[in-house]
Input
Amino acid sequence: MLDNVYATAHAQHTVRSWRRVNQLVQSKTFIIDGSSLDIATVVALARFGCTPVLKDVAAAAASLSQSVQTLNGYLSKGYFLYGVNTGFGGSADTRTRDLLGLQRALMQHVQSGVLTSEDISGRSTHEYLESHSMPSAWTRAMILVRINTNLRGHSAMCFNVLEAMMQLLRHDIVPVVPLRGSVSASGDLMPMSYIAAAIQGNPDAYVRVGKPEDGNLKVISAEAALKNASLEPIVLGPKEGLSLINGTSGATAVAVLGQYEANQLAVISQLLTALTSEALYANTEWAHPFIAAVRPHPGQIEAAQNIRTFLRGSKLTYGLEAAKDRLQLGLAQERYATRSSPQWLAPQLEDLLSAEQQLVTELNSTTDNPVANVEGDDIHCGANFQAASVTSATEKTRLALHSIGKMLFAQTSEMINDDLSNGLPPNLAADDPSSSFCLKGVDVNTAAYTSELGFLANPVSNHVQTAEMHNQSINSLGLLSARQTLAAVEVLSLIVANCLYTGCQGVDLRVLHQTFLEGIREPSRDFALRCVDNPAHLEHFFDLFWTLIETRWYELAALDAAERCEAVSQCIAIAVVRCPDHTTSLTIPRMAAVSMEYSQFLLRAYTTHRDAFFPSPPTAKYLGRGTKVIYCFVREKLGVPMHQGLVEHPIANHPSGNMLNGRPKKTIGSWVSVIYEALRNGSLYTEVLQFLEQAGMGERM
Output
């Protein structure tokens, strides 16, 4: 049964989205039209500074003008309209003729969030308080999503207001927006009001200007920022305050940033499952296409196929390309963390695609209230600001992230635990396990991360509180859910970094011991020859002897090198006892002498091999096509080395200058941090997604 790239819907989508971000970054600008905004475009603007351009300025201005004319016609008839000549929310039973003053009153009551002096000074000391303001990427995304919503022509907003938001993005003026305080119905009123404050030039609203990478980032008042950029403050006309702040733009913007990384983490989890399988020298029969074909959930078919793609060409697994051993002793099949990974990941991949569709729909929706129906010459009051679809999407995504994290934690623990790792040393220590505990701390950290991820997976939607005079009696908490989803992305990224570091250490150790045994096979034959009566009996005796050596070498992985070699050398006596007809002339003293010599030989050979292996492990040539890509990225591009044991730990004023093999010694956490940062800045994903693209998974269905 051949693999079909068109069965990999989630991977294909993730590759295409990543490719589009790269294309947008290269072009630096993109078209915005109110109906075709996608997640990749939001990411390109929010994180990489791309700038929007209106598809047709004249058409956009005309569309917005028509909606304003519809509003003016409605008001000219003396009608009352929510938020235009009435009060807001539970106070909508009031009426006013001061239409401009009403919009100022709207801004006054919603600009109520908490910002600390550090937030508005731009000088964070990390002394005690965390930031109470949103990251700039979130705010830029919110502005873009709001522009796209208003551009649809249902908001009764003048073109100059929309253009003012465009100018914020062009000049990279980023409002400082409070992190907390939105129930996301009636939309994200409070956060969006700080964007409105920026284009109004509010002297008590603050913005970030300049680039942090250039060292000239500063926080100044919105009034000063507009003046410095030669921009005029906006005076809001009837309904324009609501048009700016009433809607799901805050929740949607933050949600799509999380969704972009969540999709990439889901792909990485399948690659890590393949890498874990190699570290464990696993039987990967569980990824056979027949198993998924007879239970044809799309996500299961995809996960199994992706894992097969990553493993293709591997010399460290069997059961797919390499025939399975139908007579093997020991564990008859792999444990659940790897064996059931296609079934475990199946609903996660399907849910991520479903969540993505919900968010893309939301990006290209009109979400404020009231909405102008130009064709029907009417204004309608409704509740498109209720961000329940965003909450639904983010809660699915968070649950998916938690399930992925739980699986990766189980895989990481299995590699670190020598009772489960199929012959790898305890804690993946490359030196003596009695005095080196290598990845034990990583195991504990990963448990902590997984617990936190489990907490974050809890739904937000069941914590809704009645707000605002019981008017907002049900509200989506969409922005809160989106924030928690980005927190889950952060925590899962920590788990992924730990799992990847562990997997690379695991495959290095697997290859270290495998190549050691390959190297001593022929020299061991000479020792076997000294035990038999007749050279003609050598092959039968050696086959038994070597099987014992290989088995015992891995069984005794928990011993220090000298003890391990001594214990393994006793296989000579076991083989002699099992082949009495071929070793009749071997005396006990002679057998003891041969065993002692063999023990000494093993120790010399192992330490020599290990010392030669450490500086330049040949591991990559044993790996699958996909796992080789990620391994080489970690070892070569990031410069994260195989951990050699206790010798790696930095010590103050050490004579070596804390250098090892020409590189600095670092704590294990520092090396894991290098991987984590590569995840968050996207460089690690680039390696993996380029591989998938070359494998044909970026093709359109």
User: Anything to note?
Assistant: The chain has a mean pLDDT of 94.
